[in-house]
Amino acid sequence: MNPAFPAEIMAKPGGEALRDCIQCGTCSGACPMSVHMDLTPRRVIALTRAGLERDVLESATPWLCASCYECQVRCPRDIKVTDVMYALKRRAIEKGTCPKRFPIPVLAKAFYNMVATHGRNSESRRAHRAGVAHEPAQPAEDGTASASSC
Amino acid sequence: MTAYAYYPGCSLSGLGKPYDESLRAVFGHLGLGLEEIPDWNCCGATSYMSVSEDKAVALAARNLAIAETPRRRGRGAVRRVLPGADQGAAHDGRIPRAGREGAQGPAGGGPRVRGPGRRAAPARHPGQRRGPRGDPREGHPPARRLPRGPVLRLPGRAAVRHLRRSAPAADARPPDGSRRRAGRRLPAQGPLLRRIADGHDGGHRRPAELPAAEGSEGADRPT
After folding, report:
1. CA B59, chain centre distance (Å)
2. Torsion over CA of A119, B7, A83 and A97, rounded to 10 degrees?
3. Which residue would you say has higher pLDDT here, A102 or A33?
4. Which chain A residues are Cβ-neighbours of B136 within 8 angstroms?
5. Average of pLDDT values for A135-150?
6. Which of A9, A51, B121, B195 is the S-S candidate for B39 at Cβ 3.0 to 4.6 Å?
7. What tens digit of pLDDT does each residue of B38-77 get?
């Protein structure tokens, strides 16, 4: 448990609203991806507020977020849930604790590297890079890939 | 001719290419110009934002700076910026957010970005074609007007009103019990008109300005 973790996620202006969460579950109810998540958005907010960093950063929930902003629009406490998810993703990449056997973080890093090199993202190039780095549904565990998981 | 600055993004240049092509065709048919902004870069949404937020805002701000830089003066000037034109899947509100956060410039903490300037930027990747002014373009054909020819003639609003007024009462059914109305029918000009004559409103909601037809409020109107 990391007591400084909530403050890091709430660093952006407007992030202090995370403290006001009433755990109503509107975000989980509105989320189209919540049925596929191991931890629903409501639980992620609760765990983030409690400082249980490892559980949150190793879950697939922020990576499954589709950025539809339904949760953020509907939250009765005006918590910017989608922005919290982005902050969690950035934190997971910084610390290197991404969920195992999950291709989405690999995809994000490949995307980032491709934009850094070419300025744009050619989707066929991205699919090629992510595909040769590992099997499409199984990220490489030995870290030999160029766009290796964190 | 009014020309709009156009930002396709990676989506409309990649998997969303059909959308880009239909957009250009429609703009050509409407007589509006669509000018792709030169040397645009990734908008910095979703996947990119998951890695770095500051750089994502800088990407969007650069696009804005390029779009707002007047590339021609006088009669050929591109007058308007169409911010909603980047309909790609990764749009995600990046560009308006960059406008809010980056509008202060370097002194206000915003990123320091510049447009391409007078000289066109060099080609960034193979396959990038240059237009007549040296602007790097993606190799799309220019927007062109479609030839005037036989097009589907849809009924105007007056014709639709006429059809609704002349429709029989809602509970009037032909003897065979089918839901098709036994009212006046226009000569068959096509499947759309036939469906309207049958009382099917094409799946659209009735616009507020159309007067309701007498006695045919359509409680059983198929939708």
Report:
1. 23
2. -30
3. A33
4. none
5. 46
6. B121
7. 888 888 888 888 998 889 999 999 998 888 877 655 444 4
Spatial separation of the C-alpha atoms in residues A83 and A96, rounded to whole Å: 20
Token reading at B210? 């159309």
Q: What does the block give as tokens for B12?
A: 């409309």
Indicate the helix (H) or strand (E) that contains B5: strand B3-6
Asked if residue A41 lies in contact with residue A74, where contact means CB atoms within 8 angstroms, the answer is: no
ipTM metric: 0.74
A-B contacts (CB, under 8 Å): 57
Q: What is the structure's pLDDT at B177?
A: 52
Question: Kind of pairing, strands B80-81 and B129-130?
Answer: unpaired
- pLDDT tens track for B179-191: 554 454 444 445 5
Residue A121 contacts B, CB cutoff 8 Å: yes
A115/B59 touch (CB, cutoff 8 Å), yes or no: yes
Two tokens at B219? 């409680």
> What single DSSP character describes residue A19?
G
User: Residue B178: which residues within 8 A CB-CB, separation 6 or more?
Assistant: none
